[in-house]
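DM from R.C. (forwarded with permission)

"hey, sorry to bug you on a friday — could you get me a structure for this? deadline for the figure draft is monday and I only need the backbone to look sensible"
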Amino acid sequence: MKRLLSIELQKIWKNRASRILTISYFVILSFIALIASIKFDIGNFKLHFAEMGIFNFPFIWHFNTYIASVLKLFLAIIIVSMMANEYSYGTLKQNLIDGMSKKEFVLSKFLTVVFFAFVSTVFVFIMSIILGYSFSSYNEVGIVFSDLEYLLAYFIKLVGFFSFCLFLGVLIKRSAFAIGFLFIWFIGESIARGLLTYNIFPKSETAGQITQFFPLESMSNLIVEPFSRLSIIKNIQETIGEHGIKDYSVHLSSVLIVLAWTAIFVFLSYLLIKKRDL
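My reply, with the result:
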């Protein structure tokens, strides 16, 4: 496995575009720290994001993993390009000629997916620890390391999403078209979710029970938006008469659905490569 991963990482690092995207991703991810410096001071209205508690333990785990997951498209482009380049440069065929089996080839790609997800998760963990100890009002060990399930959800979300991108790269062979198809899929899911929620099942939870099995929706459900957990947002909601109770926890059912889709995407990628005349 180490050999397979090493081969893939060398391919990515030697590709100038992939190298720039990878570095850019982690640089932009670091910009989450700049949120702490944002201040608005307009007359009597003062807003300092760090003072709102977004970097308080354990809320920071939820906030940072949610924000970081928005940036996953950078690595998604690398995953799709990684597969598309195999066809463009003929390296897939060369790998097979050199003795690599099709099963090992797909495994090498999946190991790369897991590696990127793992490194990203570790990066977010370290960044959250630094920001948390710099700005959090609560530094007790029991509080600091609670809610770490958001990191696990983040890791699984990235693995699932990148596996989907890997499948699209295998299916379509061209990175630009694969990314375009990803957006089309997202729009299709959004339309279907809207129709189910507002037209077909407007007064029941049936729509949510169905859409939770959509690939992108299931990944989105792993980490729901954290902003309405902030006290300032809750106060605004109470002022306008909204008292809805939202569930922010990471559910095992959501984890299992994403893991199932991950297995499906990797298996379908293998089937496509196995049956194609390369």
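R.C.: lifesaver. Residues 2-275 form one domain.
me: no worries. Strands lie at 39-42, 45-48.
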